[in-house]
């Protein structure tokens, strides 16, 4: 995953006031009371340093932008802040957070995501929508994109308002920060497969660039249709992933016939279509005669699909 240059972090910090002003408006409207999210502090932190902070249950709001389905974002609300929020909008004090409380808070929590999308759209002057929204009160487990990141962007905020007080945290990876700022990230150079071949000059290439011979020597081009044709008969493994879950060893050992394993997707959410372990599409499960199938509802364009496959080539 991409590292986070200090210049990007500085620019991202400058747009926080705009983002959270919009979020405050959407949450206040949904909650029916004044809620302020502000005093944002932006930092780059090592993912490994955050695991110790995630040992207790908290409200976990996980989603992604529809055009970046693999880049999960997370808004985390600690238990004390959740309790303060619940007590402020309910008629009677609440001592324990359960599924009923999560359901009661769903509107204001969804409004946080709505505000992030609206403000991002305003910054980029385009429509931005969320996908894969999942709201749970649980011990937080890092999604795959954040697990793969050596460092991530963490924005800590103060939540305040009528009898509301606490902290909120927004966690994203470098690609999302670049996307919000409208800056194209500089990808790490691909290793040159010809670097160790005597007589061939080492240079960084894309794995889908193919060598062609010219009068001036060998160079690489993405426009060579004959080179691209060489890939078309390579077999690929396609799998459909319904969802994932992390379990302790003791829980796995205790599984038996009839056990139910709850995964991290709600009923009706699209399934992930993976090619060689890389997400390239999403779809809905269908039945074709006696077999299951997937009707594709979202898919990367051909160039993006080749790029994804090139990451594991």
Written description of the protein model:
It is built from 10 helices and 12 strands. It has 2 domains: 6-181, Chemotaxis protein chec (3-Layer(aba) Sandwich); 228-310, Roll (Surface presentation of antigens (SPOA)). The radius of gyration is 23 Å and the shape is globular. The protein is an alpha+beta fold. The chain has helices at residues 6-14, 16-31, 47-50, 79-89, 99-124, 144-148, 174-181, 225-229, 249-253, 302-310; strands at residues 35-46, 57-65, 73-78, 130-139, 151-161, 164-172, 210-214, 217-221, 238-241, 271-275, 278-288, 291-299. The strands form 3 sheets. Strands 1-5-6-3-2-4 form a 6-stranded antiparallel beta sheet. It is 31% helix and 31% strand. The model is unreliable at 188-226 (pLDDT under 50). Helix 1 packs across helix 7 and helix 2 crosses helix 5. The two termini are 16 Å apart. A hairpin with a 2-residue loop joins strand 5 and strand 6 (164-172).
How are the SSEs ordered, and which strands pair?
Layout: H1 6-14, H2 16-31, E1 35-46, H3 47-50, E2 57-65, E3 73-78, H4 79-89, H5 99-124, E4 130-139, H6 144-148, E5 151-161, E6 164-172, H7 174-181, E7 210-214, E8 217-221, H8 225-229, E9 238-241, H9 249-253, E10 271-275, E11 278-288, E12 291-299, H10 302-310
Antiparallel strand pairs: 1-5, 2-3, 2-4, 3-6, 5-6, 7-8, 9-10, 10-11, 11-12
Helix pairs in contact: 1-7, 2-5
């Amino acid at each position: 995953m991409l590292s986070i240059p200090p210049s990007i972090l500085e620019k991202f910090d400058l747009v926080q006031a705009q983002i959270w002003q919009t979020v405050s408006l959407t949450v206040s409207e949904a909650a029916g009371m004044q809620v302020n999210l502000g005093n944002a502090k932006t930092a780059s932190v090592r993912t490994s340093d955050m695991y110790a902070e995630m040992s207790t249950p908290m409200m976990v709001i996980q989603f992604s932008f529809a055009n970046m389905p693999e880049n999960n974002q997370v808004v985390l609300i600690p238990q004390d802040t959740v309790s303060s929020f619940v007590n402020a909008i309910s008629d009677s004090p609440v001592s324990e957070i359960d599924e009923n409380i999560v359901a009661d808070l769903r509107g204001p929590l969804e409004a946080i995501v709505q505000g992030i999308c609206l403000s991002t759209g305003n910054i980029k002057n385009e429509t931005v929508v969320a996908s894969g929204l999942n709201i749970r009160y649980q011990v937080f487990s890092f999604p795959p994109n954040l697990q793969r990141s050596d460092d991530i962007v963490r924005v800590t905020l103060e939540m305040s308002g009528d009898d509301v007080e606490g902290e909120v945290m927004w966690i994203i990876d470098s690609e999302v920060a670049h996307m919000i700022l409208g800056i194209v990230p500089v990808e790490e150079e691909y290793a040159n497969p010809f670097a160790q071949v005597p007589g061939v000059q080492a240079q960084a290439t894309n794995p889908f660039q193919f060598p062609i011979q010219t009068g001036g020597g060998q160079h690489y081009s993405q426009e060579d249709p004959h080179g691209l044709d060489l890939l078309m008969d390579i077999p690929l493994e396609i799998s459909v992933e319904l969802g994932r879950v992390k379990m302790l060893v003791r829980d796995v050992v205790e599984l038996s016939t009839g056990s139910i394993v709850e995964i991290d997707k709600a009923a009706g959410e699209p399934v992930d279509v993976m090619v060689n372990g890389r997400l390239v599409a999403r779809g809905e499960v269908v039945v074709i005669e006696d077999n299951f199938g997937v009707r594709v509802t979202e898919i990367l364009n051909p160039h993006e699909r080749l790029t994804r496959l090139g990451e594991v080539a």
